[in-house]
Design a protein that fits this description.
Blueprint (H helix, E strand, L loop, with lengths): L5 E6 L9 E6 L6 E5 L5 E4 L2 E3 L6 E5 L7 E7 L5 E7 L7 E4 L11 H17 L20 E4 L4 E4 L2 E2 L5 E5 L5 E3 L4 E10 L3 E7 L4 E11 L6 E2 L4 E5 L9 E8 L2 E3 L13
Parallel strand pairs: 9-11
Antiparallel strand pairs: 1-2, 2-3, 3-6, 4-5, 4-7, 7-8, 10-13, 11-12, 13-20, 14-19, 15-16, 15-18, 16-17, 17-19, 17-20, 20-21
């Protein structure tokens, strides 16, 4: 499991009494998630994209699987002073598996299934646009399940020469019925028992566009609109949807940017 963890404390505006100090902690790498704090009245943008700053100055941002090596963070102070900070994003290597000779039905869904997939994807996409002002994420994260890591972020299959979508989650293998808990507090924005690809699926909004998705669940006990605390059970591990065995696929998004959940938590301890 790749865990590139850096800490940066950046002073963006000279050093007068009204200087703006920006503190950031996280993985400055492809798939990385950065949490930080600044003055509440500072306006932040990342490569032109607004970054929400909470009433107490907390913020979060993320970088995609194939993020460019350079990003620009702009901080605008209350007095209108603007500073630009260049961020260096480390490149990662991913496991690419090539499989040839598969029947075409295993490469693409049948046409009659595509309409359902589009409807479900639209529902998920709508949830991921939500920008809740409360920074639940700031309390930190724990693993949502216990077990063996059976899949990692960024891996990809090439089927019959056609590159498929990369895997954007971390997979935790475990027996059917094992508990799945909320890794951090938040609001349940989606709770579905039977999506085509992901089966039993829950999405928790952790604030500021950061959301966790939990896929292939056997049971879903979380309720849409409900507020959950870190450690609260939201369902159980299963093998629903397009799964080859029982496991939890845990994914995190920063809005539409797919980031690596594994950078938020320590390595899982080995099972006895």
């Amino acid at each position: 499991m790749i865990r590139l963890l850096l800490v940066a404390v950046l002073t963006l505006l000279a050093r007068p009494a009204d200087a703006v100090t920006l503190e950031m902690n996280g993985a400055f790498t492809q798939g990385g998630i950065i949490m930080g704090r600044t003055d509440p009245d500072v306006k932040l943008t990342l490569d032109g994209r607004p970054v929400r700053v909470s009433a107490n100055g907390v913020f979060v941002l993320g970088f995609g699987r194939d993020a460019e090596p350079d990003a620009v963070l702009v901080a605008k102070g209350a007095d209108g002073t603007e500073e630009r900070k260049a961020l260096k994003i480390a490149k990662r290597s991913y496991n690419i598996q090539r499989i040839d000779g598969l029947p075409q039905k295993y490469v693409e869904p049948k046409p009659e299934v595509l309409a359902r997939i589009r409807r479900e994807n639209a529902k998920i996409g709508k949830v991921r646009k939500i920008d809740t002002d409360r920074p639940y994420f700031a309390e930190g994260f724990i693993w949502p399940a216990k077990g063996r890591i059976s899949g990692v972020y960024g891996s990809q299959r090439v089927l019959n020469g056609v590159p498929k979508r990369p895997h954007f989650g971390v997979d935790v293998a475990g027996p059917v019925g094992s508990p799945v808990i909320a890794p951090a507090g938040g609001i349940v924005r989606l709770a579905e028992k039977d999506l085509y690809y992901t089966g039993g699926t829950v999405i928790i909004d952790h604030g500021h566009g950061l959301s966790s998705a939990f896929l292939h669940m056997q049971t879903v006990t979380a309720k849409v609109g409900g507020e959950v605390k870190r450690g609260a059970q939201i369902g159980t591990i299963g093998a629903t949807g397009r799964a080859t065995g029982p496991h939890l696929d845990w994914r995190i998004n920063w809005f539409d940017v797919r980031v690596d959940a594994a950078v938020l938590v320590p390595p899982l301890p080995p099972k006895n």
